[in-house]
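R.M. (postdoc): so does anyone remember the format we settled on? I'll just put the structure tokens first.
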């Protein structure tokens, strides 16, 4: 691509200027700034102008096609060879008769966005056309290509046309010896030497001079053939490098780039100054709101730690309930109760433990819920005060301007109560105790019956005079009575051990369930606290959505302009 470095730099600057234009519009900047940026964009897009001159059939059109690699100015598409053809970009191909001497030709070739071309009639045509070129185009041209045909490079009209050009404008002139495939290398070299000597003699200066075969160059770019098989006389690379050098070293264009870059830097500073305060406020708002969760988390940990005595009290209340139920257990071990066990006692024992524990839990967890509420309220007072001062607005909560924690407090208490009830309902004391009481009673009755039978046998043997068998029968009765008493005592110990084991086992389960329920409910309590600041979060989120695109655009522009600074600063120093 011709002038690749220049166009890459211009494209980057154009992107920055476009981004700044959009930023200014979003930030309601002075309309004058927006207009200035748009003018900068328009100036940056101003195409380069190349003028091509030479005698008829010198190969001017073929040269242009070869340089740009597209067949856009063949003789069959130019309306008149006696008019100056001014090629410009157009979405659709059409022509416009600007005057009798000039016709504007619009083509959808992309390179015409950056390069406008003036293809003149042959210098050996009507002389007034030359005057039109000299007056209208040469002063603003970036490059003037004088094309000489290798078959007749001595045409006087071309040199006469050069005479008409002001000496200051001649620095834009390049000599091109065209159709070199028609001569040998030695002949081409001789003609080039003659052109340079003639120019030195007539104008006392040397012009950049190139010998090319535009036909072969065009085929190399468009035919897809192996370029090494084409004529070595194409030699268009040197000419293209020279054109790129002209494009990339144009003082006028580089000055435009530098002025646009400096203007963009200045406007960016204004935009940052205007948006900077708002952006910093949004960042500060976000930082402040982002501290809510960590602050709540820290306070929640302190609150749960502070409530540790609550769990000790709940544990003690359960064990105390077990002790309070022991008299009912002991009553079941009396002789009469042992002989006539009842399921009612087992139900009363479990019911007493359940009722006593739940009563104590309701009282203790209520105090715990109040302690949590107190900590949350203190956190609210501290944080809400900071928020209201920072955001300059009153948080709308509750009828009296204070949050209502009653629902959260109630949910916490009920949560712990439910967890306690679920564990206590799985004690299964009444069923197991009733079974053990019944088994104990059957065992005792078994020994009593055997003892009674043995004693009755001893009485019968005494009456019938079967001594000493009567004594043995009495002894057997006594032994079974003793065994019954011993077995009854052992069963009491077993039942007591079972009772204690059940309480100890459910003691840990109950503690875990209560702690878990308390922790979850406390977490919900603090979540309710966080939700009170949702309106502020929404406001902050809306601000972020508004300004985040601005921030990204500013960062993008800063990056591009910093990159351009590295490129353009040395150029600016060189131009000075």
């Amino acid at each position: 691509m011709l002038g690749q470095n220049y166009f890459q730099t211009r494209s980057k600057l154009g992107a920055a200027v476009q981004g700044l234009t959009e930023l200014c519009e979003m930030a309601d900047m002075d309309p004058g700034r927006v207009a200035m940026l748009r003018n900068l964009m328009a100036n940056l897009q101003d195409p380069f102008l190349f003028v091509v001159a030479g005698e008829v059939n010198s190969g001017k059109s073929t040269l242009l096609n070869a340089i740009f690699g597209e067949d856009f100015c063949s003789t069959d598409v130019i309306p008149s060879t006696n008019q100056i053809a001014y090629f410009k970009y157009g979405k659709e191909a059409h022509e416009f008769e600007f005057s009798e001497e000039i016709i504007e030709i619009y083509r959808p070739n992309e390179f015409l966005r950056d390069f406008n071309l003036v293809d003149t009639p042959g210098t050996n045509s009507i002389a007034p056309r030359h005057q039109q070129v000299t007056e209208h185009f040469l002063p603003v041209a970036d490059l003037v290509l004088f094309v000489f045909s290798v078959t007749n490079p001595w045409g006087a009209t071309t040199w006469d046309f050069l005479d008409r050009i002001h000496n200051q404008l001649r620095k834009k002139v390049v000599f091109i010896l065209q159709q070199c495939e028609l001569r040998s290398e030695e002949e081409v070299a001789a003609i080039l030497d003659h052109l340079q000597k003639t120019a030195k003699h007539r104008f006392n200066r040397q012009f950049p001079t190139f010998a090319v075969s535009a036909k072969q160059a065009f085929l190399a770019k468009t035919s897809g053939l192996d370029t090494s098989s084409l004529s070595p006389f194409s030699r268009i690379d040197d000419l293209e490098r020279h054109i790129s050098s002209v494009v990339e070293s144009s003082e006028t264009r580089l000055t435009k780039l530098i002025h646009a870059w400096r203007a963009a830097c200045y406007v960016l500073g204004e935009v940052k100054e205007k948006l900077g305060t708002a952006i910093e406020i949004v960042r500060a708002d976000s930082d402040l709101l982002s501290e809510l969760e960590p602050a709540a988390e820290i306070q929640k940990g302190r609150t749960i730690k502070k409530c540790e005595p609550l769990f000790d009290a709940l544990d003690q209340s359960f064990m105390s309930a077990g002790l309070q139920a022991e008299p009912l257990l002991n009553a079941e071990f009396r002789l009469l109760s042992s002989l006539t066990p009842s399921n009612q006692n087992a139900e009363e024992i479990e019911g007493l433990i359940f009722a006593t524990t739940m009563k104590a839990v309701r009282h203790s967890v209520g105090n715990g819920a109040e302690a949590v509420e107190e900590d949350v309220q203190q956190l609210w007072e501290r944080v809400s005060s900071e928020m209201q001062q920072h955001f300059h607005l009153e948080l709308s909560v509750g009828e009296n301007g204070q949050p209502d924690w009653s629902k959260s407090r109630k949910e916490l208490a009920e949560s712990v109560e439910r967890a306690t009830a679920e564990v206590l309902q799985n004690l299964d004391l009444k069923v197991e105790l009733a079974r053990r009481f019944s088994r104990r009673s059957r065992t005792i009755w078994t020994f009593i019956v055997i003892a009674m039978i043995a004693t009755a046998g001893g009485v019968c043997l005494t009456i019938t005079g079967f001594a000493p068998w009567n004594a043995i029968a009495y002894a057997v009765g006594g032994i079974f009575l003793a065994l019954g008493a011993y077995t009854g005592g052992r069963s009491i110990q077993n039942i007591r051990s079972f009772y204690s084991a059940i309480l100890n086992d459910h003691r840990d389960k109950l503690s875990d369930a209560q702690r878990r329920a308390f922790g979850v409910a406390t977490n919900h309590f603090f979540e309710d606290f966080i939700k009170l600041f949702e309106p502020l979060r929404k406001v902050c989120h809306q601000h972020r959505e508004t300004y985040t695109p601005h921030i990204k655009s500013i960062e993008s522009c800063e990056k591009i302009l910093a990159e351009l600074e590295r490129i353009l600063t040395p150029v600016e120093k060189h131009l000075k």
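R.M.: ...and that's the designed sequence above, right after the tokens. Also worth knowing: The chain has 18 helices and eight strands. The beta strands are 48-54, 84-89, 94-97, 102-107, 115-119, 143-149, 173-178, 209-211.
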